[in-house]
Batch of 2 targets.
Target 1
Amino acid sequence: MATRKSFDEKSKGMHKSRKLIIDTVFGREDNTQRVFGYEKEAEKKREVGERWVDSEGKEWEQKEGYITNITKMDDVREYLKKLTTCKGEDCKTIQYSSADKKLIVKTGLCATCLAKLETKLRDDGTFPFYEDYKITLNKLSYIRDLKQQYEENLKNLKDHFEIVNENGTISKWEWQVDIEKVRQDLKNDIDGAYDAIELLLQRKVALESKLREMNHSELIKN
Ligand SMILES: [Zn+2]
């Protein structure tokens, strides 16, 4: 169902003088200068740096010449903080080293917590499967990139290329290769990549069920 249009919306396309008449009849002020939807907030003059909460509970801050939504920025900050904070349950690392930071982005854990986890996995026999799983995921993303590159090359495959010279003339270069053979080689490589991806995916699924079986579903990456 369409929502009822407000007067401001309806009068947007209205001729200026007609709008003035209606506004005068109904005692309206000219409010075309206001920001639509933020009339209440825009009415008040704010100092730069001033913060307030609107009727929907969103927090705003007056900047030099514009307003910004604090709530939204906080969400982003919160998200970034999550990505750069160690997920270790009893993490005691106060200051992250640059190695810690890299590891947190990659594994979710700082060096100390990762070492602790790996010791635990060695003790309960999960480590070889965990290690295999990590390698399988790496190979998978490597082969996927490679396949994409091959496909890109195949798409852009030409038996010549042209260069526009400084004086506007065009130089044409031709490859002294059998273009059909190159195309076929690339197609074979892409087929090979597909096969490898399929095998790696099977291995990934098998390792994931093994990790689940060993009560380590937390190690499974989506
Ligand atoms: Zn930690």
Target 2
Amino acid sequence: MRGINWTARPHSMELLKKIKQMRSKRKYTIILSPAHGVEVPGKRNCDGSYAEWEWSRQQLRLLATDLERLGFTVTTDNDWADNEIGLTNRVKNMNLVKSPALVFAMHSNATTMDGCGGKAVGSVIYTCKGVTKSDAMATIAYASIAKNLPDRRLLRDRADGDDDFEANFTVLMSKHPSFLLEVGFHDNEEELKLLRDPVWCGYLRKAIVEAIVKIDREV
Ligand SMILES: [Zn+2]
């Protein structure tokens, strides 16, 4: 098993003081939900050199640092475990977090089982069924991705009057508003280039951070 080398980004004293001030203004605790686990079959590109669980954890770690710097309290549904702790356990952990909190899950997508030769392109956001705060959050996240990654194809589902797709994913079923972003298709070579591009992923994280700040203010 390949381990992940996390880059430590320590906060200076001055920054810690600023973070404390900002924290008092933040409404939501952010619960990050990293994708799957190292032992989950599939969820990889064709030659296995890209793994969704690992990419998701790397990006969410960086996102957590950015959000903490803006005063958010950030936690996860799996304590950053490399393995899949079980979806029901994740929901249990989410429900232990005091409201108001929101759940953000980040995955990469695929249309093939073996990760080879997929043709699909684009990003999609899922929320739980019914019209909830999650829908308002997803709408803000879509707009932020459109602004920060203007070339990005956004897959929308207008059937119920908003853009997000609705699904009975277990991780969307805690007591908190939740949305899940499928960033792009790791079984499509062109999409995989983006997932592997640190600059592109930086813009993606910027989009998510800006969305969460707006959500915290408006939803
Ligand atoms: Zn996934």
